[in-house]
C-alpha cells in the first residue's frame, strides 16, 4: 500500500473519534453547492455522515456512499434512516442517472480523478452537479497558527480540474467559526490521518503538545469553549 492509500484508509479505526472531533459545514457553502428545489443528493466519501446529516436536515433525499465499513457503521448510528452504501468514487453502487447532485466533502484529494470523474458523471442525470468542499483552518488567529505548527500542515492537492463531461469549474470560499471545547479539539487532531498513523508514543506526545497549548496560550487558558475559525473551500461543475 502506498503512502497516499495508507492515509486514505486510515480513518476506519478512528471512526468514533472522527465523528466526535470533525466539524460540520457552513450553511452558506451548502446553499452555494446545492441547486434550488429538491435535488436527489449523493454524499460520496460520506465518512461518519457529517455532511449527510446536514443534507437530510434540509429535507432532501440523500444516499451516503463510503468505502470504510467502520465509518459506515458509525454513519448508520449517527444518521439513522438514511441509505448508506459501501462504495467509492471509482465504483459507486448506484444506477446511471440516479442523482441530481454528488457532493464530496473532505475527500476528493483521496480519489483517482481519471476513474472518479466518469463514474460520478455516470450516476448524475444530464445537467447534474458535482460539488466539492473542504474545511481548512484559518490560521490568521494566533493560537490556530500555533496549532498548525504543532500538528503540521499536509500538502493536500485540492485540485479541481475535472474535464469532460463537466463544464467550467466555479469556486468559492466561505469563512465561518465553530465553537469547540478542549476534548473536542483533541479529538479533531486525533482524527487526522497523519496523526492516526503515528506510532503510539509519538501520537501521545503530539496530543500532549495540543493539551499544553490549551493550558498555556493566552487566548485559550482557563476556557471551556473557544472559537476555531475555518475557511470552507468549494468547487462546483455541471455535467453537460
Summarize the structure in words.
The chain is built from ten helices and seven strands. By secondary structure, the chain is α/β, with parallel strands linked by helices. Helix 2 (15-21) crosses helix 8, helix 7 runs antiparallel to helix 10 and helix 8 (182-190) runs antiparallel to helix 10. The relative contact order is 0.17. Residues 1-9 have low confidence and may be disordered.
Write the layout of secondary structure elements.
Layout: H1 3-8, H2 15-21, H3 27-33, E1 41-44, H4 50-57, E2 62-66, H5 69-78, E3 84-86, E4 99-105, H6 113-123, E5 124-137, H7 142-151, E6 170-180, H8 182-190, H9 193-196, H10 200-216, E7 226-238
CATH superfamily: Vaccinia Virus protein VP39
**Cα-based radius of gyration, to the nearest Å:** 18 Å
Percentage of residues in strands: 15-25%
Order of helices and strands: HHHEHEHEEHEHEHHHE
| Text of the CATH class | Alpha Beta
Cα separation of the termini: 36 Å
Helix- and strand-based class?
alpha/beta
Total individual domains: 1
Shape: globular
Query: Biggest sheet, open or closed, and with what strands and sense?
Result: 7 strands, mixed
- The overall strand count is 7
Uncertain segments: 1-9
CATH fold naming: Rossmann fold
> If strands are numbered along the chain, what order do they take across the biggest sheet?
3-2-1-4-5-7-6
Amino acid at each position: 500500500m502506498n503512502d497516499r492509500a495508507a492515509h486514505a484508509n486510515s480513518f476506519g479505526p478512528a471512526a468514533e473519534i472522527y465523528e466526535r472531533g470533525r466539524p460540520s459545514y457552513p450553511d452558506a457553502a451548502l446553499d452555494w453547492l446545492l441547486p434550488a428545489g429538491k435535488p436527489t443528493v449523493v454524499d460520496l466519501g460520506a465518512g461518519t455522515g457529517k455532511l449527510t446529516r446536514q443534507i437530510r436536515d434540509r429535507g432532501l433525499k440523500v444516499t451516503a456512499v463510503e468505502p470504510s465499513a467502520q465509518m459506515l457503521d458509525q454513519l448508520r448510528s449517527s444518521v439513522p434512516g438514511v441509505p448508506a452504501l459501501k462504495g467509492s468514487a471509482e465504483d459507486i453502487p448506484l444506477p446511471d442517472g440516479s442523482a441530481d447532485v454528488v457532493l464530496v466533502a473532505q475527500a476528493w484529494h483521496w480519489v483517482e480523478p481519471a476513474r472518479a470523474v466518469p463514474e460520478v458523471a455516470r450516476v448524475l442525470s444530464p445537467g447534474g452537479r458535482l460539488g466539492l468542499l473542504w474545511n481548512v483552518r484559518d490560521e490568521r488567529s494566533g493560537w490556530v497558527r500555533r496549532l498548525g505548527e504543532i500538528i503540521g500542515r499536509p500538502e493536500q492537492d485540492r485540485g479541481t480540474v475535472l474535464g469532460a463531461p463537466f463544464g467550467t469549474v466555479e469556486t468559492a470560499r466561505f469563512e465561518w467559526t465553530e465553537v469547540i471545547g478542549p476534548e473536542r479539539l483533541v479529538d479533531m487532531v486525533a482524527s487526522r490521518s497523519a496523526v492516526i498513523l503515528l506510532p503510539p508514543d509519538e501520537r501521545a506526545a503530539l496530543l500532549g503538545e495540543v493539551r499544553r497549548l490549551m493550558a498555556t496560550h493566552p487566548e485559550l487558558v482557563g476556557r471551556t469553549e473557544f472559537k476555531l475559525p475555518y475557511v470552507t473551500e468549494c468547487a462546483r461543475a455541471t455535467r453537460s
